[in-house]
Design brief:
With 403 residues, this protein is α/β, with parallel strands linked by helices. It has 18 helices and seven strands.
Length: 403
């Protein structure tokens, strides 16, 4: 972005760069939960941690935020490169920890293994924790994933010496659920899937990035945000691309604010979705599932009420869910909060596993299976009094949302 562009909008830097700059990390509810669970998994030496999310939801940015949160007692190794075989995995891991390569042979697998073993035990004796973070893990071959599992064997009788964080697209979850990787799945103690932003979070996300860059947080009108959300499906990277294009276009037109008509123009130029143009069109909105949802957009932009932005996102999701016979996501958010009180940090993992056992997903869970799901989850609470408290809270705070 050239200087005149920044001067026009009073910006100190680019607010919508698609690089993973932790300074611009916006913690939506989903991102905040993910960061808390990843940090807990590593600091508590839980061994295997898995983070998944659709392309562009901010996984790499979240990793950078995690690194900022970990203290100096945690030594980290990050692998973003393609790992072709188990030897590459071991060699990259040693290199990232700053370990000297074996002198005898660059291809001596066991020398690297001994080198890493000594390093992990030395770190443990010095009260240091070690974490290996592998991005784009959905691309790892079964052979390499099995080697990742073997790395988790570095342990004492009490603690894991190496905490392993696998980060990838939703396909990673599918692979971990496969029969051939069941041993690896059984070792995963913390597992979280990032969700896209809600409409309200989309508005806050755009305002937050503008503020960090020194600009006006209200540069985009509420109706402009509605169109951005409709076209992007709440995916942060797509929001960035659209907003950056809007700023460029507005600068060229010497406009000092961004309205919905300008966003439509940018979306058409960038060919992002079937956006809202003149006449009634069908728009594809990307959701957390891999199946696009089609919906009709009013021919007049003013028919998209500004009150939508002022409603709690929970109510928007709730009304949308009940009309379609699908449990709204806010119900699972509420259920997770109640379950954490009864079970602790493992609650979200138990909930997702029980949903999967019913052959469903959180994004399109049918209402007629909700009671069965609650019974399955309730059975996992060992303490009778806590189980009863959980059931009472479910009846009080969850069930009224779908009645």
């Amino acid at each position: 972005m050239d200087l005149s562009y920044r001067e026009h909008f009073g910006l100190k830097q680019e607010p919508f760069n698609i690089t993973a700059d932790p300074a611009f990390l916006y913690l939506s509810r989903s991102h905040r939960e993910a960061l808390a669970q990843l940090s807990y998994g590593i600091k508590a030496r839980k061994g295997f941690v898995v983070l998944t999310g659709e392309v562009g939801t901010g996984k790499t940015t979240l990793i950078n935020g995690l690194l900022d949160e970990l203290d100096s007692d945690t030594r980290t190794a990050l692998i973003f490169s393609h790992i072709a075989n188990p030897f590459d995995l071991l060699r990259y891991t040693c290199n990232e920890f700053g370990l000297r390569s074996p002198q005898h042979s660059r291809n001596d697998f066991y020398e690297y293994l001994a080198l890493l073993n000594d390093y992990l035990f030395e770190s443990y004796r010095s009260d240091k924790n070690c974490a290996l973070i592998i991005d784009e893990a959905q691309n790892l071959s079964p052979e390499v994933l099995e080697s990742v599992r073997l790395l988790s064997n570095f342990e004492t009788s009490k603690d894991k010496l190496l905490q392993i964080l696998l980060v990838g697209q939703p396909e990673l979850s599918d692979r971990l659920n496969s029969q051939e990787l069941r041993q690896l799945k059984q070792r995963v103690t913390v597992r979280y899937q990032l969700r896209s932003l809600t409409l309200k979070e989309c508005q806050a996300y755009i305002s937050s990035r503008l503020q960090v860059a020194g600009g006006d947080p209200l540069l985009f009108t509420p109706k402009a945000v509605e169109v951005i959300y409709a076209c992007s499906g709440g995916i942060p990277r797509v929001i960035n691309v659209m907003c950056d294009g809007a700023l460029m276009t507005a600068y060229g037109l010497r406009k000092t604010y961004i309205d919905d008509s300008l966003i439509r123009q940018v979306a058409e130029d960038l060919q992002i979705g079937s956006t809202v143009f003149s006449g009634e069109k069908v728009t594809k909105v990307t959701t957390n599932s891999t199946t696009p949802i089609t919906r009709k957009i009013p021919s007049q932009p003013q028919e998209v009420s500004e009150s939508i932005l002022q409603q709690p996102s929970a109510k928007v999701a709730e009304s949308a869910g009940t009309r379609s016979g699908v449990v709204p996501r806010i119900v699972f958010d509420e259920l997770s909060v109640i379950l954490v009180d009864a079970m602790g940090p493992m609650a979200s993992i138990v909930l997702k596993d029980r949903v999967a056992s019913l052959g469903e997903s959180l994004d399109r869970f049918p209402e007629d299976k909700l009671k069965a799901l609650i019974e399955l989850v309730s059975d996992e609470i060992l303490d009778p009094s806590m189980r009863q408290d959980f059931q009472n809270l479910v009846q009080e705070r969850v069930m009224p949302r779908i009645d």
